[in-house]
Structures are given as structure tokens and as C-alpha cells.
Amino acid sequence: MTQMPTTKPPIVQLKRLPHAAGLALPKYETALAAGADVRAAIPDGEPLVLKPGERFMVPTGLAMALPPGWEAQMRPRSGLAAKHGISCVNAPGTIDADYRGELKVILINHGAEDFTINRGDRIGQMVIAPVFQAIYEEVDELDETARGEGGFGSTGSK
């Protein structure tokens, strides 16, 4: 069973891979930001161009170790989404505590124009959050609720 998170912030160990030399580590851009910005670790002078509809796993040049009971969520940056239609395909992307490979951000261009990513560009934001592994129990019947089986718009569209 996993260890339950505490109220203290977790210590997240980061390993800088060779292609991230000189890039900033994840950073909270404001005092109360929930997500730390991560940067593109692509070769200098070799920009990545995402055409409309294209997606690409952009490397960050970082690997990490999270303590048990925590996950990292990779999310889109709101400014890139609002201004250029750039988002994450699997938002939020979950990074499990036992993963030790390179962190990558799966970006997609929902915009109408090509989007260029250069080395060091902020491409996503990483949120560290507690997780719990549930205990699943099979039963013959579930308790009744007012909502019942209503879903997917059953409470109205406005």
C-alpha cells in the first residue's frame, strides 16, 4: 500500500539529462502558482514546428523521483492555449511516482497557424498532487442516489 501524503510539500528529486544543460529547472512563475513551468530541451538553433493538427512529444531533458503517494500532472499553459491553440493531448498527463524516464510534454496544435518551439521555451506546467490507491470491492448492488444512472448532460446543458 502506498504511503499517504502529508501536509508538507514533497521533495521532488530532479535529474538533468545531458540535452538539458543550461536550461532552467521547473519554476513557479508567481508566488501562488499551482504549476511549475517546464521547458523544451530541443537542440539550440533547431526549432520544432508544429503544424495545425500535429502533435509531438517535446522533451524536457529532466527525469525525476517523486515520493510514494504523489504524482505529477503535466498540463497545458493557458497562454499558449488561448493565443495559439497549443494544448496537451492527454491533459493532464499523469507521471507516476515509480516512473524514472525523461519527462515529455505531448503538445498538439489546435490552431490555424504553424507554431514554433525553440530551446528553452516554456511548454507546459507541472502540478505535484497527492494520490491515493483505492481498494476496489466488488458488490452485487450499489446504494441508491437521487441522480441514479443519469450522466453525460443529464443535469442540463446550462
Question: Whole-Å distance between the termini?
Answer: 42 Å
User: What is the count of DSSP helices, taking H or I runs of 4+ residues?
Assistant: 1
**What fraction strand?**
25-35%
Give a quick account of the main beta sheet: strands, pairing sense, barrel closure: 4 strands, antiparallel
Structural class call reads mainly beta
Shape: globular
Structural Rg: 19 Å
Q: What is the H/E string?
A: EEEEEHEEEEE
> What does the average pLDDT come to?
93
Low-confidence stretches: none
Task: Give me the side-by-side strand order of the main sheet.
Answer: 1-4-8-6
**How many E-type strands?**
10
Helix content: under 10%
Domain dUTPase-like: 25-156
EC number: 3.6.1.23
Keywords: Hydrolase, Magnesium, Metal-binding, Nucleotide metabolism
Pathway: Pyrimidine metabolism; dUMP biosynthesis; dUMP from dCTP (dUTP route): step 2/2
Walk me through the structure.
There is one protein chain. The protein contains one helix and ten strands; from the N terminus they run βββββαβββββ. It is mainly β. The strands form three sheets. The chain has a four-stranded antiparallel β-sheet. Strands 2-10-5-7 form a four-stranded antiparallel β-sheet, with no helix packed on it. Strands 3-9 form a two-stranded antiparallel sheet. 23% of the residues are buried. The model has no long low-confidence stretch (mean pLDDT 93).
